[in-house]
């Protein structure tokens, strides 16, 4: 197949037709006439040499090839939008823009403060930092696939093919009501906590995968009473007495209304988590991204 000659207007029209299932409605969305949209799609199908839509009496529907192309079209439009935003930043006098992916734990514990400190330095006044929250495996994948120049994730994640630098550490513990049977301990083994129902995180969370693996290795089952999307919600569940939950000490200390709760450390080796900065190649990073890496790497471990 010859190289495709794609333009953003055609991609937007293609996506609009997929979403509206109608050439006329897609044309109205893009302020064009229906015949113009139909011609663009026909030209695109001629280039690809594959039908992208099944024409029906009252509209169209994507073929399997059309569904596949839709994923790529949305990705290309998203990348184009990010490029436009980055160039607009330069045009407005910003000397650098860094896109960073990070886990929820890192965001809550320390990253926001560290980035504020970085951006307040006079030498960095012209640098903009965009941070997006993702689960640990998605951070590594996003950096590897070029969706962001930097990532911060747990060191247990597959970081093959990426360069890394140490960022910070945190410490997992079990949070229980003040009157709970475990509240009198300073530290316990995770296996001791499995007698009680716990708050779980989404199955795609690296922490949840670790907890269930640790439970299985101890010959027990992780009993989930409720699932939440983050540690803060887990603390609210623990405060209500519904279930106990695993939370980093750093998040527990930073959270208000914990007077009736007790954080009990976990003795397990995996309970001390190490976070890493990751990127593809340092020489491929912009000057702004390199400055941010150096700043974050200097933070207390």
Structure characteristics:
D-Maltodextrin-Binding Protein, domain 2, Arc Repressor Mutant, subunit A, globular, 301 residues, alpha/beta, 12 strands
Ordered list of secondary-structure elements with their pairings:
Layout (H helix, E strand, L loop, with lengths): L7 H13 L2 H7 L4 H15 L4 E4 L2 E4 L1 H28 L4 E7 L1 H17 L6 E7 L2 H9 L5 E5 L8 E15 L9 E2 L1 H4 L4 E3 L5 H12 L6 E4 L3 H10 L4 E4 H6 L6 E6 L5 E8 L7 H11 L4
Parallel strand pairs: 3-4, 3-5, 7-11, 8-9
Antiparallel strand pairs: 1-2, 5-12, 6-10, 6-11, 6-12
Helix pairs in contact: 1-2, 1-4, 2-3
CATH architecture of the largest domain: 3-Layer(aba) Sandwich
Distance between the termini: 52 Å
Series of H and E elements: HHHEEHEHEHEEEHEHEHEHEEH
Output the CATH class name of the largest domain.
Alpha Beta
Name the overall outline.
Answer: globular
The CATH topology of the largest domain: D-Maltodextrin-Binding Protein, domain 2
Mean pLDDT: 90
Kindly state the percentage of residues in helix.
40-55%
Say how many strands there are. Answer: 12
Q: How many domains is the backbone divided into?
A: 3
Strand fraction: 15-25%
- Please identify the structural class as seen in this structure: alpha/beta
The main sheet comes to: 8 strands, mixed
* Oligomerization category of the chains in this entry: single chain
Radius of gyration: 25 Å
Provide a count of the helices: 11
Unreliable residue stretches: none
């Amino acid at each position: 197949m010859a190289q495709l000659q794609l333009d953003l207007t055609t991609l937007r029209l293609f996506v609009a037709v997929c979403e509206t299932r109608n050439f006329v409605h897609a044309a109205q969305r893009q302020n064009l006439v229906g015949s113009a949209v139909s011609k663009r799609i026909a030209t695109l199908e001629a280039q690809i040499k594959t039908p992208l839509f099944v024409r029906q009496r009252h509209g169209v529907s994507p073929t399997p090839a059309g569904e596949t192309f839709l994923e790529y079209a949305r990705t290309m439009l998203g990348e184009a939008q990010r490029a436009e935003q980055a160039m607009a930043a330069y045009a407005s006098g910003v000397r650098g823009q860094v896109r960073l992916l990070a886990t929820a734990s890192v965001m809550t514990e320390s990253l926001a403060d560290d980035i504020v400190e970085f951006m307040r330095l006079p030498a960095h006044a012209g640098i903009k930092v965009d941070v997006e929250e993702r689960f640990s495996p998605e951070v590594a994948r996003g950096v590897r696939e070029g969706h962001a120049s930097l990532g911060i994730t747990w060191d247990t994640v597959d970081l093959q093919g990426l360069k890394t630098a140490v960022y910070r550490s945190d410490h997992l513990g079990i949070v229980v009501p003040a009157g709970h049977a475990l509240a009198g301990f300073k530290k316990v083994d995770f296996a001791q906590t499995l007698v009680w129902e716990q708050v779980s995180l989404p199955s795609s969370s690296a922490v949840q995968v670790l907890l269930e693996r640790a439970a299985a290795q101890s010959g027990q089952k992780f009993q989930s009473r409720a699932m939440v999307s983050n540690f803060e919600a887990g603390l609210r569940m623990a405060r209500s007495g519904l279930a106990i939950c695993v939370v980093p000490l750093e998040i527990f200390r930073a959270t208000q209304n914990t007077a009736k709760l007790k954080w009990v450390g976990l003795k397990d080796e995996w309970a001390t988590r190490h976070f890493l900065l990751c990127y593809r190649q340092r020489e491929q990073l912009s000057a702004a991204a390199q400055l941010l890496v150096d700043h974050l790497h200097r933070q207390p471990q």
